[in-house]
Design brief:
Structural class: alpha+beta
Shape: globular
Pathway: Cofactor metabolism; pyridoxal 5'-phosphate salvage; pyridoxal 5'-phosphate from pyridoxamine 5'-phosphate: step 1/1; Cofactor metabolism; pyridoxal 5'-phosphate salvage; pyridoxal 5'-phosphate from pyridoxine 5'-phosphate: step 1/1
Keywords: Flavoprotein, FMN, Oxidoreductase, Pyridoxine biosynthesis
EC number: 1.4.3.5
Radius of gyration: 20 Å
Number of strands: 9
Helix content: 25-40%
Strand content: 25-35%
Order of helices and strands: HEEEEHEEHHHEEE
Protein name: Pyridoxine/pyridoxamine 5'-phosphate oxidase
Largest sheet: 9 strands, antiparallel
Distance between the termini: 29 Å
Subunit structure: Homodimer.
Amino acid sequence: MKDLSNYRKSYEKSELLENQIPEDPINLFHKWFYEAEDLNAVDEVNAMTITTIGLDGFPKARVVLLKKFNEEGFIFYTNYNSEKGKAILNNPNVCLSFFWPTVERQIIIKGIAEKTAENVSDNYFASRPDGSKLGAIVSPQSEVIPNREFLEENLKQLEKEWEGKEILRPAHWGGFLVRPVEVEFWQGRPNRLHDRIRYQLTDNYEWKIERLSP
């Protein structure tokens, strides 16, 4: 067994104080997101971990790509028939998290997911490269398949079928909008006294701001 007890880092790059933050967490997310992008904090700044409660009762986390965010929430796209899609449709309570180590920041978002409108999914699907469109159609996501050749042969067949045609979005593929109910911003600080600011949505649809002990 490898002992990791000596793995330590001092966090000293920034601070997160109440007198420096907006009343709305989306505005702070916007600021942090583009700061992370400008500083090349990670290869894909829009990569986020989404955790769902599966049909088997276990939580499961995986990385997906954020494709849009606004005052309503956060949008990503997936196969609705996948393990992830079925989990969300059964229990829409999800958690999103971003970790940008270069800027020593983490964001954790609790929210309620819902399917995006069909025209939103259609417009995004239309913007994808043809290869990505066909990949979404050919893959029975999360299902057991016999081998890699199964996908490659099916893809070749689809390429022939759709050659010269507009590739349409399949009904089982589309977006989810996660509407946040709680957003926590974590800023690394020296001596493990990290800054943690939590926004919670109240019954009056206002954001309650609190500092959490690290």
